[in-house]
Amino acid sequence: MKLTYFSKTVASLGLFLGAPFCSAATVNVTPGVNNVAITQVVYYFEGAEVTQTEEAVGVLVAGNDEVSIRSVSVINGGIVNLEYINTEGATILNTNPELGSINGIGVYDHGTTIDSSAGITAFNDAVAVTTTDSDLRNYVYYDLLNPAPPTPSEPDFDIVYTRAMNTDDYILVSERYGNTYFEVTPLKADGTPYVGANVLRFGGAGGDPYAVYDWNTGVAAAGNHPDQAHALSVASVSKFFEGTDVTPGPVYGFRIDNDGEADTKILVISDNPFSDNPLNPSLVPEPSSFFLSLGSVLFFLTRRNRKSAE
């Protein structure tokens, strides 16, 4: 949720006046426009699975206990049940250094806050957890930024996943209050953007509460705006390449530009396991390099033990 109208205006101007950082088209993702419609969400709550077949009106429950997403059913040429979440790990890189001096940016984790201004390393680690943990009460917030928001059109950070996503996978995002926007750019294996690919702007240009996201969960956090529930939207990974001249390929992560000061949770989800998706070569060593390193360690240990026995 964005709480300052002045900075929203400045950010909106920046989206149109500033050149996108990978020369790509910006595609709005809003209900009925470039999204994949949600028909059902299954949560884990209070020790049991709870199925939601209609989106909520306002807030249904506010608290700090776990409310995790187990599956999301969508319409994409028929009903598709998305029940696999990419949980193999993520790393946050290239964090905008401005975040280290701005109050009001952080991770909310069941009543605990990890502020970017208190330490970028701890903030990065906490953000990485939010994108592999399906609990709706563990998310990134941007509230009443002081002394000023980050420079418009400057990316906030990169999310790089241990296991890449293919074009038949999906992005599931949550935004507190469902009323503002953020941009997502696809990254290649080397951590750079796919030049010419689309940038997905979830929430479009912003709007009324719950209006620019597809599904109001009714779930709010007791210690962080308990009157504002989290809203969901889903988009296909293939949308990054649709209508472009870019050859589709595995997406290894996202570059996040949060000029809308959205309160976000980003998950990668699919109807098939991620175990056969490509591993990220920048995070996982090649087999030859791994065994070479392992051999060096074993040689060192053997040599040390031999010297000890002399």
What does this structure look like?
- The chain has 310 residues and is of the alpha+beta class.
- It has two domains: 5-279, no CATH class; 286-310.
- Helices cover 15% and strands 36% of the residues.
- The chain has three helices and 20 strands.
- The chain has helices spanning 5-17, 120-130, 287-309, and strands at residues 26-29, 37-45, 48-52, 61-63, 67-75, 79-82, 84-85, 90-93, 103-109, 112-115, 138-146, 157-165, 170-176, 182-187, 199-202, 215-216, 219-221, 230-236, 251-257, 264-270.
- It has a six-stranded mixed β-sheet. Strands 7-20-13-18-16 form a five-stranded antiparallel β-sheet, with no helix packed on it.
- The longest helix has 23 residues, at 287-309.
- The radius of gyration is 20 Å and the shape is globular.
- It starts with a helix and ends with a helix.
- Residues 1-23 and 288-310 have low confidence and may be disordered.
Task: Write a short abstract of this structure.
Mean pLDDT is 88; it is low at 1-23 and 288-310. The protein folds into two domains: 5-279, no CATH class; 286-310.
Count helical runs.
Answer: 3
What's the helical proportion of residues? 10-25%
Largest sheet: 6 strands, mixed
Shape: globular
Class per helix and strand makeup: alpha+beta
Give the percentage of residues in beta strands: 35-45%
Q: Mean pLDDT, rounded to whole units?
A: 88
Distance N terminus to C terminus? 67 Å
Strand order, main sheet: write it out.
Answer: 1-15-14-19-12-8
Order of helices and strands: HEEEEEEEEEEHEEEEEEEEEEH
Taking all Cα atoms into account, the compactness measure Rg is 20 Å
**Total number of distinct structural domains:** 2
Q: Tell me the number of strands.
A: 20
Uncertain segments of ≥5 residues (pLDDT<50)? 1-23, 288-310
